[in-house]
Design brief:
With 706 residues, the protein is mainly beta. The chain is built from six helices and 39 strands.
Amino acid sequence: MRGLSDWRLGLIVCGALVTAGQSAWGATGVTEEILVTATKRVERLQDVPISIGVVSGETVDQMLITDLRDLQSFVPNLTVQSTFGNWSVKMRGLGSGVTNLAFDSSVSIFNDGMYCGRSRCLETGFLDVDRVEVARGPQGALFGKSTIAGALTVISAKPTDEFEGYVNVGYEWENDGYLTTAMLSGPLTDTIRGRVVAHFEDTDGFVTNSFVGSDEPDTRRWSGRATLEWDVNETLTATLKAEHFDTEIDGNTNQLVGPTGTFVTLSTDPQNEYRLNDKRHLSTGTSNEDYDYSDSNSYLLSIDQELGEHTLTAIAGYWELDYQNWLDVDGVPEGFLNTALSENFDQTSLEMRLLSPVGNTIEYIVGALYYTSDVETRQHSPFGFFPPVAGPIPVGSDRNFERDTDTVSIYGQLTWNITEQLRVITDLRYTEEDQDGLGFSFPVNYPDRQHPVYAPGAFAQPPEYIFRQQRTDDSIDPSIRLQYDVSNDMMVYAAYATGSKPGGLKANDGTLGTQLLAKNSDPAYLQKYIGQPSITAAEMAAGVRFKEGNAIFDFEDEEAQNYEIGAKMLFLDGAAGVNAAVFYMEFDNLQTSSYDGTRFIIRNAASAEIKRRRTGRFLAGHRHPAADRRGGLPRSRVQRVRWLTVSSRRQGRELQGSHLCGWSGRHRWRAHRTYARLGGEPCRRLAASGGRRAHVVRHRVTLLLR
């Protein structure tokens, strides 16, 4: 077990300077309004004509939501899967695969307004947040590139005008682990406020690997943030933030079960288990413990300048991210198939936007974004020990990739308030992205797993190659929404929105050289894309420059359209609420990635679509006044999927002549036909006196139907 149910006791101790946390309930027993910034303005959740899920910072703290895997239990339509490499994040059942290390996520993260599209940015975790907003469906017009399935916005807690702080300590008995978080916030001068927070976590694993005698995964996390907020004058405020996340995970949770031929036999290993549990014995344990280490640093400067009734906002940011991991993919101690992944990534961004005053017949937002990033990935894979006369020599391959990206984007929003109750909101964004990439693969010998040695011709390796390519993608993403306020507690809307994700280059497919050599049967293709009618292995190893659209080294851009009608309603004087939406969403050129047992297959599907899907839920955070902190009413979230299809019309000939499966008309993975969740969080206060309080979250009950 992990995540929400791991921590059986959370002890919260508040010192003398600490102010007690504010309940969501006021004296009247009505919840405070939920505010969001999904439209670049601060608005009530119930007034925003977009399907949005919101999780408050209080919920994140009390339920120990440490990362996206925990968050998905609180946000309908969000699906997060931990894979051997990066996480796979999907919204409404759609999103790109993760086996291409160059893929940007289709659900991007915005940390206090700073964009990051790398999957690893989504894994950094939550620390001292004010709230987390999840916008569903294409958000290209306002959020920008690679938000084709949705956008995740994390808003950090801000410095306060009065001194406050807390120390949280938690211990987990079942598998042994502890965590601690400390925060201090308050004024430094009359115009400067500060906030610092630090977190440390150390947890043992829940899967026993008897081969090495350890419990896996053993996880250690360090994180911290420092924020300064300065009122330069009455109209100018500047915020400076520095943030660090460091994660070390030793071991994995994969377990080999069932008969495996010559690798595992019951007769030679009486402890071999043909069922999935929390133990890996001699034949199913791994001799080389997996590990996953990541390190992230980000820096942000935000400036808000009031210009009369207008507001000018500038956000400058820098984000660097490094990770490395070792994966025993086959799950047996012999080490037939292992792989090591590493990535170095950094980005710089600058966004500026101007907001008009609200309350007029015409309201508008205009903005521009510049973004540049560099990514370097490496995958080296030993292919087991093969015993020649001289002794065992592990052989394998090295696949390396480098890409520089420059993006420029301009956008705008226009709101026409036809009446006090009826309005039309239009958005438009233009984006241009330039990529310059280099990919190369070569065979190696492995005296040990840390020091691969170049070995041309080793074993039966695919031919080595050096590929280079530049590509440019541009897109125009419009959206339009019609909104009608039936009353202060009910709003209905109809929306059309689009999103796009640029094409890219393939990072870790070792068979690209084989694919190019096979094109010698098609001289016209070679002449068009590499400028010569034939290619040899020696020429490929020396280096080849591709032209755009070759479909060997690159893949095409992805587009999405979403049609949606919905309603947002509050009942019982705001004590309960229901949001509902019916939508049709279609992806064109869906970027897909899969592993067929020998290589990664990265290409564009013709289309994917969701039809007649309904979502409805009781809003998180709306509690009955009598519940207080001693108990909470159950919350239910329901979504319904009729069908989702993936068409392969554009790949027909290739599919007929290969071992690939055509998915035309079939139900897409992780797009559930019926999905329901019902849960509650019993909570009992243990003690409360003065500025100190302690409570225990006894258990979280969840019923999941699919």
